[in-house]
Design goal:
With 480 residues, the protein is an alpha/beta fold. It folds into three domains: 39 residues, no CATH class; 245 residues, Type I PLP-dependent aspartate aminotransferase-like (Major domain) (Aspartate Aminotransferase, domain 2), CATH 3.40.640; 115 residues, Aspartate Aminotransferase, domain 1, CATH 3.90.1150. The chain contains 15 helices and twelve strands. Strands 1-7-6-5-4-2-3 form a seven-stranded mixed sheet, sandwiched between helices. Helix 1 runs antiparallel to helix 2, helix 4 crosses helix 11 and helix 13 crosses helix 15. The structure holds pyridoxal-5'-phosphate (PLP). The site of pyridoxal-5'-phosphate has 13 residues, from helix 5.
Length: 480
């Protein structure tokens, strides 16, 4: 299916403003507010809204909307048409895709009740589903025992892990790689913990020598490693980091928000991922994974896990108006957030019922993404196009083999724009030229930073269009 395409350059944004960016050659470039769903999809979206509204309450067989209410829904569909085609295989930009239809149906069904997974009386069924789904994820990572819960995002899940890190090692630093997600520095600031970034190596992984030196210097409470960086999909060497941590008495938190579900492919089979870092996850003190990234869930679904169930004591708090229904543990008693959508747990639970955490289940989606990245790498290899680092997951950053850093940036900026005009939506990444020269020494350092394309191949359909994508990229990267 080729449903969604953004509108061409001729379409002026709905608001009629004309402040669009101009390219180096003076052409008008596409801005986010200029993209449009293809008319067929926009129509389908509007009719879906009209079809759903009568189902929106369990209080009656059918809900009748007033004329004003229907008009408001029509305006919604109209506004939503200003959207990138996230479900289309030609959307290769950010980590975005629609949830699985089953997750959507489960979420919508549960929303008819709108349970809250804070106290057990807020959602007894969905609290149990959350515990089961979280236990399945913990088992996937090889945890024998665990405590954990869903969160509204990966950021909040990491915040909880860092907060536990601080509570357990109050006066010690938290150390993460400069390849880590930007929110770690912010969250350390928020909780008032000294944060020390250490260098990344030439593959975009945390530099083990730098980390070893930092640990040797002392005062480190917890190390944050990233299993699948957001920028390049690089995999920190968890199996070596865990050794370094235990040698120096530091805890280990693994941020697997993006890469965690690739564990399903870490079995030595093809398509696969390097098994050792994933096998070492069981030795981490805490792990974060985002079901709303590679778990086919709608936004609002992160997950944090701790290997030691006794960290629950750190969350201890009293609330005289909650927790009165049962002595069983309420999820609110082990999370920093209060209200959370029970629907998010129901959607994840239902998805895992149909697509269990096996290579054949949810793993089949990841396998297609991984195969797409490997296939595209092979298809692009040649004299014209280079890749920043060989992809370890499903993110790939290609750039044209030009002599100067500035020329590479200019060409990639142009390709980003011309791809968008042609309905292909990529992303971009800025890199330090000195860092990229470690693996691509032929690049002339005439600018400190350079820009390349960044492609996230997280939809199974990407595996089917590898050859087409390679030739489109080659063509756009060759345009001077
Ligand atoms: C996406 C991501 C986060 C942040 O998660 P959100 O769900 O966007 O808040 C943190 N770490 C990594 C490695 C990520 O890829």
């Amino acid at each position: 299916m080729r449903p969604a395409r953004s509108a061409g350059r001729g379409d002026i944004g709905q608001n009629g403003r004309d402040e669009r960016r101009h390219s180096l050659s003076g052409q008008q470039l596409m801005q986010p507010r200029d993209v449009r769903l293809e008319p067929e999809l926009a129509r389908r979206l509007a009719s879906r809204a009209a079809a759903l509204a009568p189902l929106g309450s369990l209080a009656a067989d059918s809900v009748a909307l007033t004329a004003e209410q229907s008009a408001a829904l029509e305006r919604l569909a109209d506004r939503l048409a200003n959207t990138y085609p996230y479900g289309d295989e030609r959307y290769i930009g950010q980590m975005l895709k629609p949830p699985h239809p089953l997750a959507w149906a489960a979420y919508a069904t549960t929303m008819l009740l709108n349970p809250n997974n804070h106290a057990l009386d807020g959602g007894p069924a969905t609290a149990e589903m959350e515990q089961e789904a979280v236990a399945a994820i913990a088992a996937m990572f090889g945890y024998d025992e665990h405590i954990g819960h869903l969160t509204s995002s990966g950021t909040i899940a990491n915040l909880e892990a860092l907060w536990v890190a601080r509570e357990l090692r109050p006066d010690a630093a938290i150390v993460f790689g400069e390849n880590a997600h930007y929110t770690h520095a912010r969250m350390c600031q928020l909780i008032g913990v000294p944060a020390d970034p250490v260098a990344q190596d030439e593959h975009g992984r945390i530099d083990l020598d730098a980390l070893g030196r930092r640990l040797q210097a002392g005062g480190v409470g917890t190390v944050v490693a990233t299993l699948g960086t957001t920028s390049l999909g690089a995999i920190d060497r968890i199996e070596q980091i865990v050794e370094l941590c235990s040698r120096h008495g530091a805890r280990l938190h693994v941020d697997a928000a993006y890469g965690g579900f690739f564990t399903l492919l870490a079995d030595g089979a093809t398509p696969g991922v390097e098994p050792a870092p994933f096998a070492a996850l069981r030795r981490a003190d805490s792990i974060v994974v985002d079901p709303h990234k590679h778990g086919l869930q709608p936004y609002g679904c992160g997950c944090v896990l701790f290997a030691d169930p006794s960290v629950a004591r750190l969350y201890a708090h009293d609330s005289p108006y909650t927790y009165f229904t049962s002595r069983e543990r309420h999820l609110g008693e082990i999370s920093l957030e209060c209200s959370r959508a029970g629907a998010a747990a129901a959607a994840l639970w239902t998805t895992l019922e149909a697509l269990p955490l096996t290579r054949e289940g949810l793993g089949s989606h990841l396998a297609a993404s991984r195969a797409a990245a490997q296939g595209l790498t092979a298809a692009l290899a040649g004299a014209e196009v280079a890749i920043v680092v060989a992809p370890e997951l499903d993110i790939i950053c290609p750039f044209p083999r030009l002599a100067r850093a500035s020329a590479i940036s200019e060409r990639c900026e142009r390709a980003f724009d011309s791809l968008a005009q042609a309905g292909w939506h990529a992303a971009k990444i800025r890199l330090q030229t000195s860092w990229l020269r470690r693996t691509h020494p032929e690049i002339e350092h005439d600018a400190d930073e350079l820009t390349t394309l960044r492609l996230v191949l997280m939809k199974p359909a990407h595996a089917d269009i590898v050859e087409e994508l390679a030739s489109v990229l080659r063509e756009h990267l060759a345009r001077g």
